[in-house]
Amino acid sequence: MPTDLPNLLTLSRIAAIPVLVLFATLREPWTDLVACAIFSAAAITDYFDGKLARSRQQISDFGRMLDPIADKLLVGAALMLLAGNGQLSTFGLFPAIIILLREILVSGLREYLAGLKIGLPVTNLAKWKTGFQMGALGALLAGDSGAAVIWLSWLPVSLIGEVMLLVAAVLTLVTGWDYLQAGLRHVGRASAPPAPTPPAQPSLHS
Fold it and tell me: Residue 33: which of 131, 134, 137, 143 has the closest Cα?
């Protein structure tokens, strides 16, 4: 049901996006920090909604549909904000583009395979990718200005965020290639002609 706690957590990620956009576009040091906090809180729900759904046996079709959508909306909004606000260097734009394209690729694969009644399981490497990706986006949304609010001006937060984003992009390429290969294998099976039925053998007792 949409009102189950795991689904409410998933919905909260979508609801957080306009609030994130509002604070991120104000571009004040304290609003950068608030944007980081909002994004981080929303990202953490991605872990808890799945854990709660499994522990409470509340796994539903609604949740399976909405969970990856909420993730991609949140990540896409954060990447667009960072690029639009100039919080990414020219170097940082390249991993951001890779991550965004991979999300589109995997979404297309999942949609196609869903029509074949085939799931695309999340690998452990993909979970590491998500961890680096969410950490990088949170750090970049805070930036050096947000870090200064909590007396961390000595820490190169923006640089750390871009390095983490680069690591996430490398993992994105690896996992994206794995998912693409898995999808192509299923495409080949789906398009293969059915094996011919052998002709019936005459009965010896006829």
Answer: 143
Specify whether the CB–CB gap between 126 and 117 falls below 8 A.
no
Name the one residue in this structure whose structure tokens are 């959508």. Answer: 69
- Alpha carbon distances (Å) from 81 to 28, 35, 70, 100, 203: 14, 11, 17, 13, 74
Half-sphere exposure of residue 7: CA atoms within 13 angstroms, side-chain side: 14
3-class secondary structure, 124: helix
Render pLDDT for 73-124 as a digit per residue (tens, 0 to 9). Answer: 999 999 999 999 999 998 899 999 999 998 888 888 777 776 666 666 677 8
pTM of the model: 0.82
Q: How far apart are CA 138 and CA 37, in angstroms?
A: 8
For residues 148 and 143, give the distance between their C-alpha atoms in angstroms, rounded to a whole number: 9
CB 141 within 8 A of CB 32: yes
